């Protein structure tokens, strides 16, 4: 008999007062008892709507059933059949708009905590089992994967399982892409990311770091080196700025730079680690997405007293997950909604001292379907801050496009692909993830990597 | 890991390392740079490629010990390894079609100006090289430059080599004597590049400067290396590092260069402190 309680089993979290002083993980995960209790909320219904909501097709009712039976290893392996990175997805997937959105239990009360259960199974496995992964027999065909973020890792893992000799080329000194440089330690511990990557390596995937494709090797060079197909998963690494006066003042960061310094280069451990980051007592983060929340919460942990989220629309239009907004609020982040920066004002020696903003109101819906914010005349006011972090989005990195003749892209930089296969305008070249869509989610990138892996397999199987 | 094949001490503060990095060596061109990291706790720093040998698969960097990372780099010896070495990054300099050029190096900038002078020489251009140093003991690459320069002028701030003055004094003289160049390349401290650019502007001589701002990744990702050029914001790592000296906002660049001065000082002091501790203990 299913547990008919209307609420999910709560997941323990670090107290907000405590966690703003550290970079350790905020959400602490289920215990075995909690996981079994929550697993009983699943009705194991016949239609399985949740599975249709998962971009990588995780067999959700099956793995939950295994948890309810206490077979945690089996649950992990069930997830792993279709998902290369369960410990990561269980933490950063927007389940509320995917699997859990479609859960039958959500019609009355809260849906089953699919994400928390996925995380539990993955964490339990990593803690209790030896990674017992066999590389498949090699089929002698070489595939190059550019970028070791979620799209590249998924594509590489799926192809390696089929016997392809896969090499991932990573520009940075560690693999993981946005999982390493973008998402903070307190949401996604880096040791865990590396463990997940190790499972991909054990499938036989070779990862070469410090390889900036487009510079050190062109796609043509890769062909000459015997790679029969290429997958581009180079992400959305180009930060957008607002183009307002004062953006080049000292103390203005792109969210990319701010987060990379902190996450990848561990500036929060400065001076133990060498990379510094400048932070004032008063910090403004411009933008309303997950990246903005991450930047604001990092700033708080680095000791800023007042951290403002400055967003030009209202909370309803914020692209960030509600959980992230909730966590940010708990940590004392101050939301200045319907507020838009117009210029950044500097001191005589060129440091930020304030940001001038205007109040906004929502007008008619725009092309994105969200109501267009319009400035309210005469509402100019100053926000006194010494650090400004611009988190208004990223565009695809142009390095590969600019060095690959014939690779078609949209005007805004996204690589043009066939939706079902990820095939680009060049034969044997596939792409997926943020390099195609612009900044989106980890799981969508993984879904794209998966589709492309299947398409590459089909392409190379047909090729003599 | 990237092995140090050769080390040379060029002057008390400037060292040369030849690094085994075959992939980088295969593609490197003058004007490009690499990003390196010494160890797990280390920062990523950009250094301009001073030379490369495609056959040997090596890339040469020349650096001045100004902070913790460069000071630690200087302590490494032949046979030691760097943890990370990525490149070649940035755009290569466009040197084709130049018939007469003046290449100007200020201090360490001379090391970066050398591959440009060499390439121009190889392309058949006539190259006047002007370099400036604080004093005679700091003079770099004199022998190498002599082989590629049509004329080599070396100045010192204190006159200790018998030629007191700044590189701009020589350039001014050459221009006033009627020497005309298709291209001036100036590499060195921002203030020097600014002065050179101001000097060549009335003559309408195309002037290229090499910017070396603060960077994290070197691939266009962080935007920390923003430079205003002709009123537009550029990223030095992917749009440069070479820019038109007549268009660069040098005052902004100088300000941005100072952003981490406090932390740089702190890191360096802690580094010296630890070294002292190690030596005493």
Structure description:
The complex is a heterodimer of chains A (464) and B (281). Chain A is an alpha/beta fold. Chain A is built from 18 helices and 16 strands. A 5-stranded parallel sheet of chain A has the order 3-2-1-4-16. Chain A has a 5-stranded parallel sheet with strand order 6-14-7-8-9. In chain A, strands 10, 11, 12 and 13 form a 4-stranded antiparallel sheet that branches. Chain A is globular. Chain B is globular. Helix content of chain B is 31%, strand content 31%. With 281 residues, chain B is α/β, with parallel strands linked by helices. Chain B has 3 domains: 2-89, Translation factors (Elongation Factor Tu (Ef-tu), domain 3, Beta Barrel), CATH 2.40.30.10; 92-188, Nucleotide-binding domain of ferredoxin-NADP reductase (FNR) module (Rossmann fold, 3-Layer(aba) Sandwich); 211-262, no CATH class. In chain B, strands 6-1-2-5-4-3-7 form a 7-stranded antiparallel sheet. In chain B, helix 3 runs parallel beside helix 4 (142-148). Classes of the chains: A alpha/beta (464), B alpha/beta (281). Chain A binds chain B through residues 171-173, 181, 209-212, 215-217, 237-239, 241, 247-248, 250-251, 253-254, 256-257, 260-261, 265-266, 269-276, 278, 349-350, 397-399, and chain B through 23-24, 26-27, 37, 41-44, 68-69, 83-89, 216-217, 219-224, 226, 228, 233, 238, 252, 255-256, 258-260, 263-264, 266-267, 270.
Keywords:
heterodimer; A: 464 residues; alpha/beta; 5-stranded parallel beta sheet; 18 helices; B: 281 residues; Elongation Factor Tu (Ef-tu), domain 3; Rossmann fold; 3 domains; 7-stranded antiparallel beta sheet; 6-stranded mixed beta sheet; 31% helix
Q: How many strands of chain A?
A: 16
Question: Pair with the most extensive interface?
Answer: A-B, 41 and 41 residues
CATH class of the largest domain in chain B: Alpha Beta
Count of distinct structural domains of chain B: 3
Radius of gyration of chain B: 18 Å
Number of helices of chain B: 9
Output mean pLDDT of chain A: 95
Instruction: State the strand order across the main sheet of chain A.
Output: 3-2-1-4-16
Helix content of chain B: 25-40%
- Largest sheet report of chain A: 5 strands, parallel
Largest sheet of chain B: 7 strands, antiparallel
Mean pLDDT of chain B: 93
- Rounded to the nearest angstrom, the distance between the terminal CA atoms of chain B is 30 Å
